[in-house]
Fold this sequence. Notes:
Distance between the termini: 85 Å
Helix content: 55-70%
Protein name: DUF4129 domain-containing protein
Keywords: Membrane, Transmembrane, Transmembrane helix
Number of strands: 2
Low-confidence stretches: 1-12, 35-39, 93-100
Transmembrane segments: 68-93
Order of helices and strands: HHHHHEEHHHHH
Pfam families: DUF4129
Amino acid sequence: MGLAVGALLVAIPGPPLAPEGDDARRWAEQELSDPAYAAAQPTAFDRIARAIGDFVADLLSAQLPEGVGSLVALVAAAVAIGVIATAILVWGVPRATARSRRVPAELFGEAETRSATQLRADAASRASEGEWEAAIVLRFRALARGLSERGIVDPPPGATVHAFARRAGRSFPASAAELEAAAGAFDDVRYLRRPGTAELYRCVAAVDDAVAAARPVVHDPAGVPA
């Protein structure tokens, strides 16, 4: 029976229990490529916290006079708090800012990813070529995108230009009539196919400039009803 079991074990194929150099290196690379190892790596904040802890431990473990030890501990604690606060400012604030400045990729029912600055530049380019319809549409979109970037009025998908103008008018009451007129100009050239003019473009551009330079009376980042 013992001989039969031994023969059976020899016949079963499998990896060598003591792999040679190339096999061992390949196995190690495969094992370390597991995402679990990457997830277990300490972050930059972890390394900073560990360094602070080691620094404080070294200070407290040093042989110091009785009165000086408490003072050193207080100084070390203040330094640690300052470093942690700095790390939070450096690594925490940019992420929050990026979220607050995120704008939707749709504007008045159409895909639009350009910034307000880009839309204004494109509108000016079309105006310089006498393409007033396109210039008016682009400049009104620049107005809406600018207020969205500032977090004042954020038109949701499906919002109409007049609903946007009413909401913007509540934040900028001094320009409420001009905002409604600009929305009417957008509707005329975009949907009713009426010809645009230089005067209409100047009106839209003027209210965009006025709103961009003004402070809102009511800061309301909620969406605009359709």
